[in-house]
Amino acid sequence: MPQYNDMFELSVDDMDLIERSLRSLTEALPSQGAEETERQVHDLLGRLHNQKIFYRPRDGVYVGG
User: Fold this and answer.
1) 48: which residues sit within 8 A by CB, 6+ positions away?
2) How far apart are CA 33 and CA 1, in angstroms?
3) d(CA 33, CA 36)
4) Residue 52, SS3 per DSSP
5) How far is CA 39 from CA 16, 17, 35, 45, 53, in A?
């Protein structure tokens, strides 16, 4: 039985495209009967967000926004 590849090589642009596509999918879903799919997409977007690494500049003042 084949195994899954757990080493992905996606660029930041690839991840951005995936996120934008998932967000547009949730907007296009009909309001009735798609709650489970919408929940799955929302959970996936959350997992993608949690894998991001956010950087702060070491020098100078950090202005968040």
Assistant:
1) 15, 18, 19
2) 35
3) 8
4) coil
5) 20, 20, 6, 10, 24
The alpha carbons of the chain give a radius of gyration, in whole angstroms, of 17
**What sign results for the dihedral spanned by CA atoms 12, 6, 40, 54?**
negative
Kindly report, residue by residue over 6-60, the tens digit of the pLDDT: 888 889 899 999 999 999 998 888 777 788 889 999 999 999 988 887 777 778 7
Residues in the chain: 65
For helices 35-50 and 12-28, what crossing angle results, to 10°?
160
pTM of the model: 0.69
Q: How far is CA 20 from CA 5, 10, 35, 54, 62, in A?
A: 24, 15, 19, 19, 28
